[in-house]
Amino acid sequence: MVIIGIDPGFAITGYGIIDYTGNKFRLLDVGAITTQPDLELSDRLLVLNLKLDELISKYKPDAMAVEELFFNTNVKTAIKVGHGRGVALLSAAKAGIKVYEYTPLQVKQAVVGYGRAKKEQVQQMVKVLLNLDKIPKPDDAADALAVAICHAHSSGTSRLMKIWS
């Protein structure tokens, strides 16, 4: 199963594409889509849409895993990040890809085994699980891989639950 994980944003959107077959992970691609701050928001979102469409066309993922929006105080930033998240969902919908959403707590639990794990612990486990030489940069890319890994672990659990039912 090919999974594209997305850490949404409008300035930086992290993506991680993995193949999960037979309980084994294989990294296909990882990176970040960045947009220029001097562009209008609508143009930044268009750049994001075009790049995501390219990645989806190239790797033909079976599923998209997206981190749910989480914010503490800055509503303005949360709304802009929400726009980027919406573009990712639209790209998936245009390609007929099912989208799965996970909270930061779910991602940490699935990757590290502890829902209150620190960011560094999650990044280290991403490195270990994917057998990488170093933690992917920027952080948004490593976070996107963590979301993809979370989905791989979660989809396996739901398949087992169907077998046992």
Q: Could you explain the architecture of this structure?
A:
The protein has helices at residues 41-59, 75-95, 104-112, 119-129, 139-164; strands spanning 2-7, 12-21, 24-34, 63-67, 98-102. It has a single domain, classed as Nucleotidyltransferase, domain 5. The chain has 5 helices and 5 strands. It has a 5-stranded mixed β-sheet. Helix 2 links the parallel strand 4 (63-67) and strand 5 (98-102). With 165 residues, the chain is an alpha/beta fold. The longest helix has 26 residues, at 139-164. Residues 157-165 have low confidence and may be disordered.
Annotation keywords:
single chain, 165 residues, alpha/beta, Nucleotidyltransferase, domain 5, 52% helix, globular, disordered C terminus
Structural domains: how many: 1
- Helical content stands at 40-55%
Query: CATH class, please?
Result: Alpha Beta
Task: List segments where confidence is low: pLDDT < 50 over at least 5 consecutive residues.
Answer: 157-165
Number of helices: 5
Order of helices and strands: EEEHEHEHHH
Topology-level CATH name: Nucleotidyltransferase, domain 5
- Overall number of strands: 5
CATH superfamily: Ribonuclease H-like superfamily/Ribonuclease H
The averaged pLDDT comes out at 91
Structural class, from helix and strand content?
A: alpha/beta
If classified by CATH, what would the architecture be? 2-Layer Sandwich
Described by the principal axes of the CA atoms, the overall outline is: globular
Q: Kindly report how far apart the N and C termini lie.
A: 23 Å
